[in-house]
């Protein structure tokens, strides 16, 4: 996956983002957090109306930089990331997911790089993420990309 495959999400991507995010949460956290907590995460973060609304925020909000998606050669969305700059100089990743079938192929790395570029453009000097659990399956990915623990579930890195 090349960075050029990453683009700003458009309204027609909302269903794919919702599906990918729900699939990733269920696969990554199902056994770790239990059915009830995973169901709540999916309900809170994967709602199609919510994702549609977030994509359609005209021009973005002051702290919201939107959704980016990665697509394969056929145009199928295989990953997504959302983020913003909620505090001066501090970027925040709200979600990052890849299709389980496309993991370890550079999709997450390309999305993380594109989100970082977008955040730097809006004044961020650092990037943060909060994971749903201490032993989150994504922890090795983030540490590989320079994130260090700030708390048990919060990680950060310099951009």
UniProtKB/TrEMBL annotation:
Transmembrane segments: none
Domain of life: Bacteria
Residue ranges annotated for the N-acetyltransferase domain, each copy included: 4-159
Keywords of this entry: Acyltransferase, Transferase
Keyword Cell division part of the UniProt annotation: no
Protein name as it appears in the record: N-acetyltransferase domain-containing protein
Source lineage: Bacteria, Bacillati, Actinomycetota, Actinomycetes, Kitasatosporales
